[in-house]
Write a structure and sequence with these properties.
The complex is a heterotrimer of chains A (232), B (245) and C (223).
Chain A: H1 9-17, H2 20-60, H3 64-79, H4 82-92, H5 102-127, H6 131-139, H7 144-172, H8 186-197, H9 201-227
Chain B: E1 5-14, E2 17-27, E3 32-36, H1 43-50, E4 58-63, E5 66-67, H2 75-81, E6 82-85, H3 97-107, H4 113-126, H5 142-154, E7 160-164, H6 172-187, E8 191-195, H7 199-205, E9 208-213, E10 216-221, H8 223-228, H9 233-241
Helix pairs in contact in B: 3-4, 3-5, 4-5, 5-6
Chain C: H1 2-8, H2 11-52, H3 55-70, H4 73-86, H5 93-118, H6 122-130, H7 135-150, H8 152-165, H9 177-188, H10 192-220
Helix pairs in contact in C: 2-3, 2-5, 2-9, 2-10, 3-5, 4-5, 5-7, 5-8, 6-7, 8-10, 9-10
The chains are: A mainly alpha (232), B alpha/beta (245), C mainly alpha (223).
Chain lengths: 232, 245, 223
C-alpha cells in the first residue's frame, strides 16, 4: 500500500517543488503577475531610455551648471542600490504627503536608475566619435541638430547597443524588487502562494515565469552583441 | 652531415582547402634558406609546420633527425630549439623588453632570476638593444620591437630560427635595422628559414632560395640561379611582377 | 523647510540609529568581501572552461551564464532561502545568501572574462608557446594579465553591481545596511534611517562610480 511505504527522496522533491495540483491552483494569479511584470518592464524601458538619451543630448550643449547636475544625477543613481531607491520613494516620501502606489514607486525608481546608466552609455558612445565627424558635418553646412541626428547618433548607436541591451535586461529584472513593496508582480504572487500552500511549487513556477520572460531577452542580447561588436 | 631541419612530403589542408601538397625541403645546418612566392602559396603554413604551430595532416618534420610529428615528442622542449619570429612581433605588452626575453628562461628553462637576467641582457646585446631593457613594447619603434622579438627567441639558444615575414609590418626606414641583425645571425652560423619579400636581402645573404606557389615548391636553388636565371614560368612571372627582372 | 529636515534628516534620530546602521554596513562589507573574490575566481574559471575546453563545454558555459543572467537575483535568493528547507537542507543564512549571489555574479564575471580572453590576440599565445611555455604558463603569465587589463572597467562596474546587490539580502532579513535601516524606520516611525542608509551607500559607492567613469572615458575617447 502506497501510504505505508515511505516516499523516496525524488518523490518528496517532486511533491515539494513540482506539484501539479498546487500549480493548477495558482496559474491564474501567476499569469496576472506576469502581465504586470511585462507591463512594468516596458514602461521602465520606455521612460528610462528616453530620459537617458535626452540627458545625454542636453549634456552635449556643455552648459556647466546643467552638466554638473546631470553628472551628479548619473553618479547618484548608479551608486544607489535600486532597492534602496524603491524603498525611499515608497516609504519615505509619504511622510511629506507624497505617497505613491507600489507600481509608481517601482516604475519611477527603476526608470531613474536606467536613465542614469543610459545617459552614461550614450555619453561614452558619443565621446568615442572623433571630433572630425562634427567638423566635417558642420563644414558642409549641417546645423547642430541635423549633425547630431544624421551623423553622430547613428554612429554612437552602433557602439552603445550591446552595453545598452545588457544594462536594460539587468535593470528590468529589477521589477522583481517591486515585490518588496507588495507589488503584485510574479515574485510577490509566488512567495505569497508558496506560504499559503506550504509548498515550494509556486516559487518554482515564478522562477520558470522569469526564465520564460528573460531568456529570450538574454539570447537576443547575445545576438546583438555579435552583430554590433563593441569596438575598442 | 644531417640537415638541421628536414621536411618530407608535408600535406596540410584546412577542411576542404588544401594548402600544402606534399612539400619536401632540406635545410642544412648553418645555412639561410629563403622562401618566396605569391600570397596564398602556403609559405607561412610551411614555416609554421616547422615548430608545429600548424600540424600537418601527413608527412614528417625532422629536427636534427628526430621526427617531431610523432606522438610523445616534448613539444615545449622542442620549441626552445626551434625559435620563431613573427610578422606582428607579438611582444607581451605588459612586460618590459627584458621581461619579454626572460619569461621563458625563467619558466621553461627554470633558470634563476639572476641567470635569466644575464642571459636576457646578452640576447638584447646581440640585437643592439641593451639600453632598452626596461622599456615597454609600447614605447619602442616597430624595428626595435621586432629586434626584441628576435632576442626573445635567441635567449633560448635555439638551433634553428624561423622568420615569418619579419619586416612586412615595418616602416621602410626601420627594415634595415632588422635585416642587419639577421645578417649578423647568419654570419654567426645560425640555421635560418626566412619567409619574406625582401629580395635584396635574399640576393645578398641567402644560401638557398625556394619558390613556392599553390602549396608546392616549383623551383629552388642558389640566389644567383633563382634571380638571374629563373627556369619555371611561374617564377619568371612572379619576379617580373616584383620588378626583379 | 524645517519640516523637511525633521522628517528626512532628523539629527536626533540619526544619532540614535547611527551605530545600528554601522553594524549593517559591516555586514554589507562582509558579504561583499566574501562574494566578490569568489565571484571573480568563479567567473574566471567559467570563462577559461569555455575558452580552453572542448566545444560542448563552451556551450554548457554559455547556457550556464545565460541562465543566471536571465534569473532575477532576488528570485534566486528567495528560491534558495525558502526552498532549501523543503529539501531538508539546513544551511546557515549567510551561506545561502552568499551562494545565491555567487551563482548570479559568477555568470556576469564569466561574461566579462570571456570577452577579456577573446580580446587577447592569438599571436600572444603563439609567441608564448613558441618559446616553450606550456598551456598553463601561457595563460597565467601572458593571456590572463592582458585579458584582465583589457576589461578592467567592466570588472569594476560589475563589482559595483555586486556590492549594490547585497541590499537584496535585506529581503531575507539578513542584518545588512538596508535591513537595519528599515527596522530602524519601523521603530522610529521616521524615514531618516533610510535616508541615512542611502547616504552611507553613496559615501561607499560614489567614489567607485567616479573611478569607473574616468576609466570608461579614458578607454573610449579618441586621441
Amino acid at each position: 500500500m502506497n501510504s505505508a511505504a515511505p516516499l523516496s527522496t525524488l518523490d518528496r522533491f517532486l511533491f515539494s517543488f513540482f506539484n501539479p495540483e498546487v500549480a493548477a491552483r495558482y496559474v491564474a494569479p501567476m499569469l496576472d503577475g506576469m502581465l504586470l511584470t511585462i507591463g512594468l518592464g516596458l514602461c521602465v524601458i520606455a521612460t528610462g531610455l528616453v530620459l537617458g538619451l535626452t540627458l545625454a543630448v542636453v549634456r552635449i550643449q556643455h552648459v556647466r551648471l546643467i552638466n554638473g547636475i546631470i553628472v551628479a544625477f548619473a553618479d547618484i543613481f548608479r551608486a544607489l542600490p535600486p532597492l534602496v531607491v524603491i524603498i525611499l520613494l515608497f516609504f519615505a516620501f509619504p511622510y511629506i504627503e507624497l505617497s505613491m502606489s507600489a507600481f509608481t514607486a517601482t516604475w519611477l525608481a527603476l526608470s531613474l536608475v536606467l536613465a542614469a546608466f543610459t545617459e552614461e552609455i550614450f555619453w561614452t558612445g558619443m565621446l568615442a566619435i572623433p571630433k572630425g565627424q562634427w567638423e566635417a558635418a558642420r563644414s558642409t553646412g549641417l546645423g547642430p541638430w541635423a549633425t547630431l541626428v544624421q551623423v553622430i547618433l547613428p554612429q554612437a548607436v552602433r557602439m552603445t547597443v550591446p552595453p545598452l541591451t545588457n544594462r536594460t535586461i539587468a535593470i528590468t529584472k529589477g521589477t522583481a524588487l517591486g515585490s518588496v513593496v507588495a507589488l503584485h508582480e510574479v515574485l510577490n504572487v509566488s512567495s505569497a502562494a508558496s506560504s499559503e500552500a506550504g509548498n515550494a511549487t509556486p516559487l518554482v513556477m515564478g522562477a520558470a515565469a522569469y526564465l520564460i520572460l528573460f531568456i529570450p531577452f538574454v539570447v537576443f542580447g547575445r545576438w546583438v552583441e555579435t552583430r554590433f561588436a563593441w569596438k575598442r | 652531415m644531417r640537415p638541421a631541419l628536414e621536411l618530407r612530403d608535408l600535406c596540410k589542408a584546412y577542411g576542404a582547402l588544401a594548402v600544402l601538397h606534399g612539400v619536401s625541403l632540406s635545410v642544412p645546418t648553418g645555412k639561410l634558406v629563403f622562401v618566396i612566392g605569391p600570397s596564398g602559396s602556403g609559405k607561412s603554413t610551411l614555416l609554421r609546420c616547422c615548430n608545429l604551430l600548424e600540424v600537418p595532416q601527413s608527412g614528417a618534420v625532422l629536427v636534427d633527425g628526430q621526427d617531431i610529428t610523432q606522438a610523445g615528442v616534448d613539444l615545449n622542449r622542442l620549441r626552445q630549439q626551434v625559435g620563431m619570429v613573427f610578422q606582428s612581433f607579438n611582444l607581451y605588452p605588459h612586460m618590459t623588453a627584458l621581461g619579454n626575453v626572460t619569461l621563458a628562461l625563467r619558466k621553461v628553462q627554470k633558470l634563476s632570476k639572476a641567470q635569466a637576467q644575464a642571459d636576457g641582457l646578452q640576447a638584447l646585446a646581440r640585437v643592439g638593444l641593451t639600453d632598452k631593457a626596461n622599456t615597454y613594447p609600447g614605447q619602442l619603434s616597430g624595428g626595435q620591437q621586432q629586434r626584441v622579438g628576435i632576442a626573445r627567441s635567441l635567449a633560448l639558444k635555439p638551433k634553428i630560427l624561423l622568420f615569418d615575414e619579419p619586416t612586412s609590418a615595418l616602416d621602410p626606414e626601420l627594415v634595415g635595422s632588422v635585416l642587419q641583425v639577421m645578417r649578423e645571425l647568419r654570419e654567426s652560423g645560425m640555421t635560418m628559414v626566412v619567409v619574406s619579400h625582401e629580395m635584396g636581402f635574399a640576393r645578398a645573404a641567402a644560401d638557398h632560395v625556394v619558390f613556392m606557389d599553390k602549396g608546392q615548391i616549383l623551383e629552388q636553388g642558389s640566389p644567383q640561379v633563382i634571380f638571374d636565371t629563373p627556369q619555371h614560368p611561374r617564377l619568371r612571372e612572379f619576379l617580373t611582377a616584383l620588378g626583379q627582372r | 523647510m524645517d519640516n523637511l529636515i525633521n522628517v528626512f534628516f532628523n539629527p536626533d534620530i540619526m544619532e540614535k540609529v547611527w551605530p545600528f546602521l554601522l553594524q549593517g554596513l559591516w555586514m554589507t562589507l562582509l558579504l561583499s568581501l566574501t562574494v566578490v573574490p569568489l565571484g571573480l575566481a568563479g567567473g574566471l574559471l567559467v570563462a577559461l572552461a569555455g575558452n580552453q575546453g572542448p566545444r560542448w563545454l563552451r556551450w554548457t558555459m554559455v547556457v550556464y551564464v545565460d541562465f543566471f543572467r536571465a534569473f532575477p537575483p532576488l528570485v534566486l535568493l528567495i528560491l534558495i532561502y525558502f526552498g532549501l528547507p523543503f529539501l531538508s537542507i539546513d544551511m546557515p543564512k549567510f551561506a545561502a545568501v552568499a551562494m545565491g549571489f555567487l551563482l548570479n555574479n559568477s555568470s556576469y564575471y564569466g561574461e566579462v572574462f570571456r570577452a577579456g580572453l577573446e580580446s587577447v590576440p592569438r599571436g600572444q599565445t603563439e609567441a608564448a608557446r613558441s618559446t616553450g611555455l606550456n598551456r598553463f604558463q601561457t595563460l597565467w603569465h601572458v593571456v590572463i594579465p592582458q585579458a584582465t587589463r583589457n576589461v578592467l572597467p567592466e570588472l569594476i562596474s560589475n563589482t559595483l553591481e555586486v556590492i549594490k546587490l547585497t541590499a537584496l539580502a535585506s529581503v531575507v532579513a539578513m542584518p545588512e545596511l538596508l535591513n537595519n535601516a528599515r527596522q530602524a524606520q519601523a521603530l522610529t516611525y521616521n524615514p531618516t534611517p533610510i535616508v541615512l542608509a542611502a547616504l552611507m551607500y553613496l559615501m561607499l559607492l560614489w567614489p567607485v562610480v567616479r573611478l569607473l567613469s574616468r576609466l570608461e572615458h579614458r578607454s573610449t575617447v579618441v586621441r
